[in-house]
Amino acid sequence: MTIAAPLRRAIPAGATITQWSAPDGWTIRRFDWPAEGTPRGAILFQGGRGDVFEKYFEAFGHWHAAGWTIASFDWRGQGGSGRLSPDPHVGHVDDFAPWIADIATFWHAWDAPGPRVVMGHSMGGYLVLRALLDRAVTPAAAVLVAPMLGLRAPVGPWLGATVARLMTRIGNPARAAWKGHERPGARLERRALLTHDASRYDDEQYWYREKPEIQLGPPSWAWLAHAFAGTRALQADRRIESLAVPIMLLVAEADALVDPAAALRVADRLPDATVVRFGAEAAHELLREADPVRDRALAAIDQFLETRAR
């Protein structure tokens, strides 16, 4: 069921937005929405590169209405968390490891009712899977939404990785890899890459107008190089075959930002994977898509949690 746009554009009643400090002192913005009454459990939801948790208030409302406590935080370097680049509009990172450390710290300090579930969209899906493999988080179940387990590149992933690695060596690795667009060389506008639903896309723009400081622009060359290297290493990780956590993967086969084939190959190796596939009707942001796609995605997640998150 669609939630009206005004409700998607307000902090939910009973929710809080605060800040916490990572062990190294880094400031990270967090969102908490405790369940009402007897809780069903707790969901930690992590967005993708450049995401802010405001974009997912509608999905959070769906799960909260079903009795779940909801938490999320902006990855360091984006949203309302401390930036990693002198340019606040560039999504830079020197290493993905601090993100794994942050989710581990949050998870172990998180005072929330069980069963506890972790979800990740796009880059968040990649980081969640890495955290699972490292046993940095120990959920009852996990959900990966359009996970970044491989990257799209106009010149192909191998050459794309080579170019990104070279560009980190011949200039400032923290400089923007491109201007403006989610993906260089794309024939589609940004909205079409993310969702077919113009109203839900406009929700994101609303929050950026309200809080311009949380908006991020293109990635740095260093982020791009680490993303190519990290996803390639994850695909070759032999620990995948022994990962016992029940995992649902929602894969958009027409995704123009991440590689759905890579996600499906990883899913084939997971011992306990449930895969839901979407076709041309779905772009990258499945939880912010038009109602037929979004409702199907939420229903699949609900069924998975009902049977596997115990």
UniProtKB/TrEMBL annotation:
Which keywords accompany this UniProt record?
Hydrolase
- What is the top-level taxon of the source organism? Bacteria
Q: Which SUPFAM superfamilies match?
A: alpha/beta-Hydrolases (SSF53474)
Give GO MF terms, alphabetically. hydrolase activity
The UniProt entry, under InterPro entries, shows: AB_hydrolase_fold (IPR029058), Hydrolase_4 (IPR022742), MAG_DAG_Lipase (IPR051044)
**Serine aminopeptidase S33 domain sequence ranges:** 38-291
UniProt cross-references to Gene3D superfamilies, sorted A to Z: alpha/beta hydrolase (3.40.50.1820)
Q: Which PANTHER family match?
A: PHOSPHOLIPASE-RELATED (PTHR11614)
Its protein name is Alpha/beta hydrolase
